[in-house]
Amino acid sequence: MTPLAERLASETLALCRIPSPIGQEQSLCDHLERMTRALQLPVHREGNALILTGARPLALVGHLDTVPALPGDGPPRLEGDRVYGKGASDMKGGLAVALALLKELPAERRPHLILYDREEGPYVENGLEPLFGKGLLPKLSLAVCLEPTSNALQLGCVGSLHATVRFRGQAAHSARPWEGANAIHKAGQLLARLASTERRAVRHGDLTYYEVAEVTRAQGGRARNVVPDLFELNLNYRFAPGTSLEQAKARVVELVGEGEIEFTDLSPSGPSCEANPELQRLRAAGVPVEAKQAWTDVARFGVHGIDAVNFGPGNPAQAHQVDEWCESPALARAFELLQAWLLA
Question: Which listed site, 95, 233, 320, 333, has its alpha carbon 20 to 30 Å from 173?
Fold first, then answer.
């Protein structure tokens, strides 16, 4: 392990040792505020969000929260080249890299650093939006969201729509089901349709995104010997850049057919901004370019007319996993690529 990788791994581990599941980010925010003020960096705190003012119209952007702990999660630790801990990949490794850059870059080359809470929850509860609403964010040429990308530039992001789909029937004794109507059986056609539907490839610019619809939760039935009169599904539809929320809702209505629909969380897709000059400078360093097959706050920046990309040292496949990890060589590589871009 190189000295740089070792240092970044140690700093990532320190962040992982401060639990920050969604809604419980205050302790981590307090820690980072003390750290940045000790370095005499200009910092503004707003709730559990921090804005560190830089000298250039560029920003590194990271969320402080993680998903809640999972059964089987081990303690934060360093084993070989891997840092284990909740959020190691998503995205405390990225935060460690950003903080190290601010410590080492000359003041005139520093980007802004924007840290915020509640990214892992519903779109309307996200802690980044109030910063826009209060006019606290600087004018930016490009924002780099430190999402786990294995040090690839992942452009744009798919939108995400959640809907509760309800099927209603009539309760009856399960020995005489003809006296009622089984609400779970009514969902059969939709479930079969979803099971047989393949992902839909959508070309946007030079990149390919995939549109998918999946049932992620289901609930129904009152007792083992009662025909269920209500069955509820959570349907998550992911849609490509270029598709509006209204178009996405219309596709869900068409897909569901029979059944009541209540849209519960609507997150727009994010533009890919492939022509952005700052993105092209970062891309010229040899960073691979991919489509972002997930939702991120690149979409929120896009709503506010700001170009943004995803780039971070974390492994996307480790995000939200049991005993999540990030590799120290990836931390060092992210630091080197961002440092070269910011010093150029």
Answer: 233
CA distances from 175 to 88, 187, 223, 224 (A): 52, 21, 13, 11
Instruction: Please report, as a single letter, which amino acid is at residue 233.
Output: L
The arithmetic mean of pLDDT across residues 150-154, rounded, is 97
C-alpha 63, offset from chain centre: 9
CA dist 95 and 113 (Å) reads 10
What's the domain range around 196? 159-266
Phi, psi of 318, deg, nearest 5? -90, -15
Task: With beta carbons less than 8 A apart as the criterion, state whether 248 and 202 touch.
Answer: no
CA distance 209 to 239: 8
Tell me which DSSP letter residue 5 carries: H
- Name the domain boundary from 220, 244, 266: 266
| pLDDT exceeds cutoff 90 at 1 | no
- 18 with 110, same domain? yes
Find tokens 């402080």 and name the residue.
64
Last residue of a domain, one of 266, 287, 317: 266
Together in a domain, 84 and 139: yes
The answer to whether 293 and 210 have CB atoms below 8 angstroms apart is yes
Global pTM value:
0.93
Mean pLDDT of 240-249: 96
Catalytic choice (11, 117, 119, 120): 119
Tell me the CB-side half-sphere exposure of residue 54, using CA atoms within 13 A: 26
pLDDT of 268 over the 90 cut:
yes
Set 25, 65, 117, 278: catalytic member: 65
204-208, 213-217, 226-230: range with lowest mean pLDDT: 204-208
Cβ neighbors of 37 (< 8 A, separation 6 or more) are 43
